[in-house]
Amino acid sequence: MSSWGEGVKISIFGESHGPAIGVVIDGLPAGQKIDMQGVYLQMSRRAPGKDRAATPRLEKDIPKVLSGMLDDTTTGAPLCAVIENTNTRSGDYKNIMSVPRPAHADYTAFLRYNGFSDIRGGGHFSGRLTAPLVFAGAVCRQILEKKGIKIAAHISSVGDIEDSRFDPCSIDDELIERLSSSTFGLIDQKTEEPMRALIEDCRQNGDSIGGTIECAVKGMPGGIGSPMFYGIENVISSIVFGIPAVKGIEFGAGFDAAKMRGSQNNDEFYYDGDRVKTKTNNHGGILGGISSGMPIIFRAAIKPTPSISMEQNSVDLSEKKQAVLDIHGRHDPCIVVRAVPVIEAAAAIAVINLISEARCHES
Amino acid sequence: MSSWGEGVKISIFGESHGPAIGVVIDGLPAGQKIDMQGVYLQMSRRAPGKDRAATPRLEKDIPKVLSGMLDDTTTGAPLCAVIENTNTRSGDYKNIMSVPRPAHADYTAFLRYNGFSDIRGGGHFSGRLTAPLVFAGAVCRQILEKKGIKIAAHISSVGDIEDSRFDPCSIDDELIERLSSSTFGLIDQKTEEPMRALIEDCRQNGDSIGGTIECAVKGMPGGIGSPMFYGIENVISSIVFGIPAVKGIEFGAGFDAAKMRGSQNNDEFYYDGDRVKTKTNNHGGILGGISSGMPIIFRAAIKPTPSISMEQNSVDLSEKKQAVLDIHGRHDPCIVVRAVPVIEAAAAIAVINLISEARCHES
Amino acid sequence: MSSWGEGVKISIFGESHGPAIGVVIDGLPAGQKIDMQGVYLQMSRRAPGKDRAATPRLEKDIPKVLSGMLDDTTTGAPLCAVIENTNTRSGDYKNIMSVPRPAHADYTAFLRYNGFSDIRGGGHFSGRLTAPLVFAGAVCRQILEKKGIKIAAHISSVGDIEDSRFDPCSIDDELIERLSSSTFGLIDQKTEEPMRALIEDCRQNGDSIGGTIECAVKGMPGGIGSPMFYGIENVISSIVFGIPAVKGIEFGAGFDAAKMRGSQNNDEFYYDGDRVKTKTNNHGGILGGISSGMPIIFRAAIKPTPSISMEQNSVDLSEKKQAVLDIHGRHDPCIVVRAVPVIEAAAAIAVINLISEARCHES
Amino acid sequence: MSSWGEGVKISIFGESHGPAIGVVIDGLPAGQKIDMQGVYLQMSRRAPGKDRAATPRLEKDIPKVLSGMLDDTTTGAPLCAVIENTNTRSGDYKNIMSVPRPAHADYTAFLRYNGFSDIRGGGHFSGRLTAPLVFAGAVCRQILEKKGIKIAAHISSVGDIEDSRFDPCSIDDELIERLSSSTFGLIDQKTEEPMRALIEDCRQNGDSIGGTIECAVKGMPGGIGSPMFYGIENVISSIVFGIPAVKGIEFGAGFDAAKMRGSQNNDEFYYDGDRVKTKTNNHGGILGGISSGMPIIFRAAIKPTPSISMEQNSVDLSEKKQAVLDIHGRHDPCIVVRAVPVIEAAAAIAVINLISEARCHES
């Protein structure tokens, strides 16, 4: 299902080459003034063609708000925003109708929908469907910022090239600000050149490359999240895996914690004035599913763009035989770059839901 | 919330030192004959004291079915099973009431429940609460087995010591059978000795160690799962993060995919007779959130047991000052071992939900 | 929330005087050919100005499908349809901004949304929001018809004037067909004249009148619905009360059953060939929340249109004093007439969910 | 499904003649001191044998709390309470195994569960399953009372004999108190004698009788509830229809409103000091699904007890032929009496959910 959430529900619709895509956000508080320029900024970070490492396909991606806002202020009614599909060239994808692209959802969509899904451009599975997610996240994010909760992500790696990581115990406001408006977000900007070189090399070879994105939520109050199945990890992962190409997620020390001893991994508590903090943050701000007040830190693994220009072996589903696939569309050699604001958006939507869930259980 | 699921809902209750723990499973099909010995076997794999690497605390953990079964056959009514708490020594935990244990949920539970949670033995956050999860999973698992869907997991690593991985394209039935009844499940049994030695070393030092668990679902039909937020990764991760100490999850090649080029990561399709398969399985049986018919493979990162016997720095929440914590309970130096059947159980519950969700959308 | 459903979720958005209204339907089976003319027919039954008893406001109400359909066939992706708002004259409602209209949601919306809701024309509370509901219902209805499930409703009363009731044990296919395309649906067409006279009298007097609608679902298979909270009554009522002005619902004999003895109310079972039927249908096709195979019958009570042209006492919320309200908009004197297809639509959406839920629990 | 709710979820389990019945309540605020005697009082109002008009079957119905409470104070963990089944005589129901009782769920459960449901005593469909609902309601009610929200219901009619109705605009605290502890709750106590006489007459004749229950929620703050599908009517009806034998519900003037003109039905607003009130309360405290601050008023129609001692025609499902049913169990001739506290309980659970949902949407 393309619907998600409890306190604030989002329902995403659209197909890559249909008339439009969009989102309904139900359950937002009324009276929230939204800076629409800030929303467009987030959307432009995701939009193709904004960064030179990305696909040259141009999208205007200017969302039209159909309901839920008056004078840029939420009315409390479901907020629906629609983005028209304009610059589409469906010819590029013609031969994939019966020959599924490796690592794409073509084949599984074929099974799931008995051959009826609109597979042009990936249909509902297209990365383009993350545009309404970014819209929803940008709105939620502004509401969170008024509560002092800030979210930022960066490209933590592309292939083997790694950026520095967030200082998990103390994240600089200036860094957050810089990352929040960047189209190639890095902590250590010296990493940019080798990363771009690697991406360019992949493009030249008709290949693509994967990477990871690290995301931080600063200012999360302690005591948010519920044990077991409504913990912060459950909620964040259940939305983050809705982003195409995400194949893994880890919180705090994550998979590294699996190699540690307890004496290394356990984060000591201490008093900083009258606030309880931890000296290290291997727990990523989450214990028992609940926030500790330390920054929430998670990393997502993004697989390489499935669409590559190299010849690939596949099958022809109509003729039931082997086939060779040769795709000549316009593809991002590294979707990690554009996925950064999408991860932030997903985090924002998750956090607003976690906070609204926490309110439910107040006396 | 300790409730999860749509087609089959589970609702877990209980606290470590309260009268009992248990689970309600709502929405099971009626008329399913359940082999209760098989259920007990699964529960005994998780129970402490079964394997010499685990805590010596003895639990009988014999669940009493209060409803939903007649002659070991599901009636369709909610199935409730209760496990009494008997062998508890709450004295062991006395000094943690105001001094939260590092890496435990003590502090966050304190925030979340305003100091009212029953923290004896971890309360509702105790690993003991995975017993009813294993019960629920064992029931679901038997229902899945009748459909030819089999689930098995193994200790894929403890600290730096790694077991072999599943052959992601073809998992042996005998291996599944062996793992499904093992209390120290490994693919390559030569790994057992060094792993046990490492765990023993941790125990001797009052320390603990983390690890990873790899789980496979064989026989999953293609076309199961829905795009975006009800994909297989979303559903599995949203329940798996309900297991205490899980800090990461990856599907297929997971974080390794983030280092690959598309040409390496893309799994080629081919016809094996009239069945479409992939030559490699970096996609872990999932594309666009939907099953491809290849085995579902995922790995979870388990942090080291937070309870260690070494002295640790913490804070005293009542006196608002620093404190030193010295715990003398009985603890597993490596909960990875006992978490294996829990991961399998969570996978079984996730899969039965995914399959029931798929049925909803049939015409 | 304006989202509803589990197997098939609908999410309705829009405000009366905003740019557009619409619906996202998530979870429909793929490959369903939809007769769009049939959908428009249902929408036109609800549209104002279609029947002379209704408001003269003209709406084109031609929905634009943004996603989820290709060649009038469902693709499986969320189906989004949008209806633009065109013929609106917001001047009519100007003085209600601070003076809430009696029996409208103006005042409660003011409380709920802290004064931020778009109250022009009722905003999200407007009866106009039932247009996307009818769209969704019309799509679901066609899918149900392929399974032999048919739905029809009629004006069972306006004020004290009553139409005949359905024969609860056997509903004629021709009657269903006639009602399904009628704009003033009655079983006994002799009732039409006095009803219209009563409505016209109300209009002349600047007043309005309430009524009831009876709805039948024919061909519902037995065994659908779940005990307690997912019974047919729960599911139907939870959506039907989403229709503005509905203040009551009863199933089968309903409130009349409350006056009966068991010996009168109990419906005897008998064999009609090898089918089990009941001689009477006081149970309205539902026992224990589950369908018996007899027709589902329910009636909804619709209050009189709150908007009347007579002077009414109210309060001025900005000046905090008494006020007199004198509304000069265009209003239906009897919304019961146009609510008939809306009730049918809600029933169709409820039934498709009940059927999809039933599938979840199959073995 | 026997699970219900969002902010506070309840999951009811058990079968009439199984080992036990009970409920899990997930999501309650922590730190709520519960007066357990008050809870037992509510349960005893529902228990059989308490009022002479009810069935002589004795149940101790003393719930055992398995989790979620410490020193009668909620811990925040799921609260599970179990009631053992003791005084059961399953012989009484032997012949119903293949001969479904008219107006009972025997036949529909047979269809729904393919013959596997535990039908002894009605199994999961038994009225006995309302005991855990009353438990859950009694806990929620005490939490609401601390917020000044009070709930009371009375027998508004038995057959044709009607009690007075609540003054919908102003409900006396003393009346609420009296009703809240009554086992034969009436506003006008002069109605008691004729009602008891009618019930006794039914008992003598081996027959039964239906009735209605009116329920009021006093002190409900304005602005609670969400438009469309999470309105107060939707939420209350979706749980109230979970109570066996309820066949109708109406809010405020309900079905009477359907006979009124707008000029009669519209409730005028006025200022009472600085509080906005309405002069009449035909809207039952709800406009557009949202509370107005006036008392919430609803009425439920309860069908006559299906179990009667008179001979009834039915079918034999195993032999596939007509059959005559002659039941000699112990039955309530009028379950309306014992359903009063059940309706109150359902209202309490609904209201606590509505209030927790409202908190979600605060900024």
Can you give a write-up of this model?
Four copies of one chain form a homotetramer. By secondary structure, the first copy, chain A, is α+β, with helices and mostly antiparallel strands. Chain A has a single domain, classed as Chorismate synthase, AroC fold (4-Layer Sandwich). Chain A is 26% helix and 23% strand. In chain A, the strands form six sheets. Chain A has a five-stranded antiparallel beta sheet with strand order 1-2-3-7-4, with helices on one face. A five-stranded antiparallel beta sheet of chain A has the order 9-8-10-16-11. A two-stranded antiparallel sheet of chain A has the order 5-6. In chain A, a hairpin with a 2-residue loop joins strand 8 (150-158) and strand 9. The longest helix of chain A has 25 residues, at 336-360. The first copy, chain A, is globular and about 70 Å long. The two termini of chain A are 33 Å apart. Strand 11 (246-251) of chain A pairs antiparallel with strand 11 of chain B, so a sheet runs across the interface.
